[in-house]
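Bumping with the actual sequence this time:
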Amino acid sequence: MPDLHVLLVAVPTFVVAYAVFAMVGFGTTLISAPIVAQVVPLPTLIPVQSVLDLIASGGMGFKLRKQAAKTEVLHILPGMILGLIAGTYPLIVVPLTALMALLGAFVVLFALRGMLSRPRARTTSARWAWWYGFSGGTLSAMFGAGAWLYAIYLMRRLEDPAAIRATQSLLIAVGAVIRVVLFAIAGKYSNAQVIWLTVLLLPAMALGVFLGNRIAHTLNRTRFLRVLYLVLLATGTSLLIRATNLYAP
């Protein structure tokens, strides 16, 4: 069973992470991993996150399935599957400190991109689905954090916000199923620590989704995302500093 100090860090972090997910449709690992990875190894944390993502996104995807653009799902799915397979291997064999540094760099770059970018109306050819699918799948397998790439692609392909949200939820659910299967094949769920942590964090996930759905109706999304990017920048930087200290003799 996880130590008490692990739960004291992980439980409130996962409540916030899944509240973010319910509000903006992605971001669970971007919020949780930089913080929780400081008390739980990434090879343990990512399989746990995959199960929780499957439950959270599966419920939303099933509820909104009729609004999903199934053609876009078929466009992006082959690349996503290949990316998920490719991203699982480094998670198993790459040293923990290197993974921590990669995650920190990834989160910092994502936050800076969000803070500095300006909304622009663009359209994207369906031929780019392979790139977005593969990149998102790889990041999802390694860090559980590739859904933002699917969101970028869908926003440039679909006009109806409801269709974008429904299609993204379906993609996240499908990706989570594949991640769980791959991690199961790799033996990740034979680890008692992974099983205990998953069970103990289920209530935090459920509470976060509930709160996020309530808050989503009252919160200004633009201001929320600005705060989110600042938090991500701080946590990603913290993770990079910790990885650097671990590398130091």
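The tokens above came from a reply further down the thread. The mean pLDDT is 80.
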